[in-house]
UniProtKB/TrEMBL annotation:
It comes from the Bacteria. This is TetR/AcrR family transcriptional regulator. Residues 1-61 form the HTH tetR-type domain. The keyword Ribosomal protein does not apply.
Length: 186
């Protein structure tokens, strides 16, 4: 792991534990095992660090949730693959998931960073558009449908973090996905 990644991992851990304001850069540097000046060689400000961390976590998420969707034939099976991949990602990257929960709507995440994060999801958002156009998904306001999907994804993740044995129960996973699918299918 290079210095930049060590700094990001340390910031992730400390921001989750103490919040943004209560995490000084000196503490992040110490946790990462680098000099404070080294942190500023990679990130000009603490704000730049948290925005870089947001995109770092978003990249991790996108890599995981898109695995194997090109092998799926139907919209339902693609969405199910994304859902199952998301749960797998969150259960193995709980710190990253909790970071998103804490900071996704934070004023510390800049508008440019948010837009870049959304653009990374464009191919997934196109699936929903395609589903609406082909009358597979309810033809409603797409932002609302996206919010419903994200809400169910996140609620499911919280539930499975609290109940990890159910995250291994194939029948229960199918039921949980069906709650999502039934809420958006036409």
């Amino acid at each position: 792991m290079d210095r930049r990644e060590r700094i990001l991992k340390a910031a992730l851990k400390l921001f989750n534990a103490h919040g943004f304001d209560n995490t000084p850069t000196a503490r992040i540097s110490k946790e990462a095992g680098v000099a404070t000046g080294t942190l500023f060689n990679y990130f000009d400000t603490k704000e730049q660090l948290i925005n870089s961390l947001y995109l770092y976590c978003k990249d991790s998420l996108i890599r995981q949730i898109t695995q194997g969707i090109d092998k799926e034939k139907t919209l339902r099976s693609k969405l199910k693959r994304i859902y199952m991949n998301y749960l797998g990602w969150g259960l193995h990257n709980t710190d990253e998931f909790l970071f998103f929960q804490q900071f996704s709507n934070s004023p510390y995440i800049g508008e440019v960073t948010r837009k870049e994060g959304v653009s990374k999801l464009s191919s997934l958002l196109e699936l929903i558009t395609e589903g609406m156009e082909n009358e597979i998904i309810k033809n409603s306001n797409q932002d609302y449908i996206n919010a419903v999907i994200v809400g169910i994804f996140n609620s499911s993740m919280h539930y499975f973090i609290e109940n990890p044995t159910l995250a291994k129960d194939e029948e229960f996973l199918e039921i949980s996905f069906n709650f999502l699918w039934d809420s958006i299918k036409k």
